[in-house]
Write a structure and sequence with these properties.
The chain is built from 8 helices and 9 strands. By secondary structure, it is an alpha/beta fold. It has one domain: TIM Barrel, CATH 3.20.20.
Amino acid sequence: MEVAPENWLGAGGRLGRAFEEIAERVPLACHGLLLNLGGPDPIDIDFLKRLKPFLDRYKVRCYSDHLAFCGESGLLYELLPIPFTAEAVRHTAGRIRLVQDVLERPIAIENASYYCVLAQDLSEAEFVNAVLAEADCRLLLDINNVYVNSQNHGYDPLSFLRTLRAERIVYAHIAGHLRPEEGLIIDTHGTPVVDPVWQLLAQAFDLFGVFPCLLERDEHIPPLEDLLPEVEHIASLQRQQLAGDQAVVRHA
């Protein structure tokens, strides 16, 4: 199960007890919202010092945040794009290394959706890979974001995937999005996953092998019985890939 740690640090009472019970039964991943990895404000060291014992206490498998910025002279509570430049690579990677040093663990960064390009010396794929290499961190691969960005900015999503290194991928997100009649596709996590995104997930498994995958739903949340078929579809794609990999091994 994935949780936003900002929502649970210091939680007490009924919610705190419920969290303790879940943590005892279910392995946890933490996906943050406020690290502000690409922003100009200093990294919040006090927050990291509170976060570290939380991650240790609950044996969190992975801690991640977005390859974006969300604050300047205070938090903006929006995930905003980073310029795709060499200078931004150095700036962001240095901040990721600082976070990893304080937490004494590697973190993962998520490729974020974006709706405008601030400056661009590098392609999105080149920028993501350069940050991963310079920071020596992991990747939370958001399949829906790859698709949304490819449609909005005119590139081939499969070509984007082919640039990635399998060993960097720790797990993936998959979600639905809003497609207006005109204009940009919007990453909402508020609708069922569409066929092209399912196909892209299958292609990612084919390229990199099977990795864990989390279904995101942040709004218009339906009854659980309507969500479980999507979770099962993820599992079925994973089983198909594993069966195909085993058949190749037997044939070899």
